[in-house]
Write a structure and sequence with these properties.
The chain is an all-alpha fold and about 450 residues long. It has 19 helices and two strands.
Length: about 450
């Protein structure tokens, strides 16, 4: 359909207003980098909740997508202007960014592939940005409290929007219901996000942050975080997201192991599992249902088979994130649309889309973060920072485990938060008191044992 002069004028006006707004936001962000960081992580969930409003859902989604690109772009410019991006600490995140851009250049992009690259790359900014504003344990606790409070709004929205269970808020498609032992079905709670797994990851995020705050807060605040945590975790059952359930077990278990409190926490977790099975017996049936595991194995096999047949070029730089041709799922040899992220495995998704180089850099980046977190756990200057080192190390393990049964690298909104948590690791390590000896290499910290 041809655009009228009025349409073209309206688009030009909108672009002009948007450009002016971005310049103003950039100037404010450059002058107040800490305050803009707090604002981003407080208001981002509220932006997602705009889907609750009645109106043009496609317009709302377009605004969300535009903001999702504009915010990291502005923060990246702030980092460049403040000369905070070029350092040894950021070498691996920047190398991963370059590897992904090379993939896009070599393979070309269509709309879906371009969107996928943006979804993978924009959260990388949040690995770097905390280094500019997280200077002390006070900054760290402020950030975690902001995330926890803003996520409470998300979970309340899940309750308010539960009638739209399992229906995508923009496109209207419905995901499959879960068969129960009784023969009935249970809808998966998608709520405002449409995708049940995404809802479950929001809930898990609150679980993880509230658990850490419960560990480090005192008196009434400690009890309050525990109470809110228990009440708002109820929707997790209705999402049937096994990865999130598993994460809720690994985080306290591994944290307690690292803190030397394994027996007490193990007893607490076992008691919670028994209570959950008694009160919600369908959990046990869901956990032993092999159907979705078999489905994922078919996806994984199809992706890897197509990648192997692509030859040396595909092995090194992947096949790109453009759509691949589809074949019959029951043939045991499956091509699926790579741009959708349906592979349900982060490493395989990166392997096929971007190749071995990107996957190796990605794994090294995670190992580097784990090494820095381990250093903080042992050598942090305060008990809170040492606790955060243990907590973030546990969170890294959970994120990686979730990534083996889901495409974590392309969940852009959730990765804003995960990468910001991990960015706090780099910030606290970079701002540590420098010891007398040299700093060491990319993978080794300057503690006394190395």
């Amino acid at each position: 359909m041809m655009l009228t002069e009025f349409d073209l004028l309206a688009q030009a006006l909108w672009l002009s207003v948007f450009a002016v707004a971005m310049v103003i936001v950039l100037l404010i962000s450059w002058r107040y980098p800490r305050q803009i960081f707090w604002a981003v992580f407080f208001f981002r969930p509220l932006l997602e909740m705009s889907r609750l409003m009645k109106g043009n859902n496609e317009l709302v989604q377009g605004i969300i997508n535009s903001v999702g690109i504009a915010v990291p772009a502005v923060l990246l410019l702030v980092l460049v202007f403040h000369k905070k991006i070029w350092s040894e600490v950021n070498l691996l995140p920047l190398a991963f960014l370059v590897a992904m851009l090379v993939t896009g250049f070599l393979h070309g992009t269509n709309f879906e592939a371009g969107e996928m690259l943006v979804r993978i790359l924009t959260p990388i900014v949040f690995l770097v940005y905390p280094q500019m504003i997280i200077q002390s344990e006070k900054d760290l606790k402020t950030f975690l409290r902001i995330v926890a409070v803003s996520t409470i709004f998300v979970l309340l929205a899940v309750y308010l929007d539960r009638q739209r269970t399992n229906v995508h808020p923009v496109y209207g498609w419905v995901q499959d219901a879960i068969p129960l032992k009784s023969g009935e079905t249970q809808n998966r709670l998608g709520a405002i996000f449409g995708v049940p797994t995404m809802t479950a990851y929001w809930i898990f995020q609150f679980f993880a942050v509230a658990y850490f705050l419960f560990e480090v807060e005192r008196a009434f605040a400690r009890i309050a975080w525990m109470g809110i945590w228990i009440i708002l975790l109820i929707p997790l059952y209705f999402t049937f997201a096994r990865a999130a359930w598993l994460g809720c077990l690994i985080v306290p278990f591994l944290y307690s192991y690292l803190k030397g409190r394994l027996v007490r926490t193990t007893t607490w977790i076992i008691g919670g599992i028994i209570m959950a099975i008694v009160v919600l017996p369908n959990i046990l049936f869901r956990l032993q249902n092999p159907a979705t595991i078999e489905f994922r194995l078919r996806f994984w096999f199809g992706y890897i088979r197509s990648w192997i047949e692509g030859g040396v070029g595909s092995w090194l730089t992947g096949m790109g994130f453009a759509r691949l041709p589809e074949k019959n799922i029951y043939s045991g040899y499956l091509y699926v649309p790579a741009g959708t992220g349906l592979v349900e495995n982060s490493l395989i998704f990166l392997l096929v889309g971007a190749g071995l180089v990107a996957v190796i850099v990605f794994i090294l980046m995670i190992l580097n973060l784990a090494r820095r977190a381990s250093w903080l756990r042992k050598n942090g200057t305060t008990p809170l920072i040492r606790n955060f080192g243990a907590w973030s190390l546990a969170l890294l393990v959970v994120w990686f485990v979730m990534g083996m049964v889901g495409d974590m690298v392309s969940y852009v909104v959730i990765n804003w938060y995960w990468y910001a948590f991990f960015g706090c690791i780099l910030a606290l390590w970079r701002n540590r008191k420098e010891p007398a000896q040299s700093q060491g290499g990319i993978f080794f910290s300057p503690d006394s044992g190395e």
